[in-house]
Prior knowledge:
This is Ketosynthase family 3 (KS3) domain-containing protein. One of its GO terms (biological process) is fatty acid biosynthetic process. Keywords: Phosphopantetheine, Phosphoprotein. A hairpin with a 3-residue loop joins strand 1 and strand 2 (14-15). The chain has a domain at 66-207: Thiolase/Chalcone synthase (Peroxisomal Thiolase, Chain A, domain 1), CATH 3.40.47. The protein is an alpha/beta fold. It has nine helices and seven strands, in the order E-E-H-E-E-H-H-H-H-E-H-H-E-H-E-H.
Amino acid sequence: VHIMGGNCRMPGGSYQMERYYAAISQCIDAFIDIPTTRWPMEPYYNPDSEQFGAQGKSVTRHAGMMSDDEWLCFDNSFFDLAPEVGFCMAPSQRILLEISWELLHMMGFKNFKSTRGQNIGITIGECSLDLDPWHGFQQHQEAWLQAQFNQGTSAARLNHMYGMTGPVKQVDTACSTTLVSHNMTHAMLRKIDNKGIERMFSMGHQTLNMPFGFIGLSGAGMLGRTGRCLTFDNSG
């Protein structure tokens, strides 16, 4: 299996693989105080919490966050989407469209016509959209239906938009979601009877848009007070 390209958009300005590698190699800490442009953290944060957060509170106020323009700005017209539809989509779904097109462009596809009819498979890892499922319903009912805010449409939307004819899969295995997505893609390409599939792309996506995940994970003792992942450290 040959890797033809890779792409990403991560916290700390790690946009595309070169910047991501630079951030890792220089030990960049991309964790910041959660900005009020996401949500006001003060009502949900308890600095005196131990391992298990107090009811309705988070033990941390830090997270890896992209800048506002990286997750809010979106060119609806480029993807032939009405502004109302883009408004109703989850931020991570919009980012998925942008990053997937950049990835396909790296593979040599120059426009949407060039992808139509291509026998290319798609595997998407998506464990949480982290947004109110009724977002936009009051303002744009028809666009809300078209956006189809649920975790079963992200891969299907890509397949429909690009007009590909390969298999479409979407997976959710919690923390290992993206890893499993990539592994499924690799296994499909190595399979002898894979129905002629010679090319696939796999992606995983998630954004943090609400405080409730922090509260729930804090209550279960699954978050550290530093807000960082300290692998193999019992205080992580």
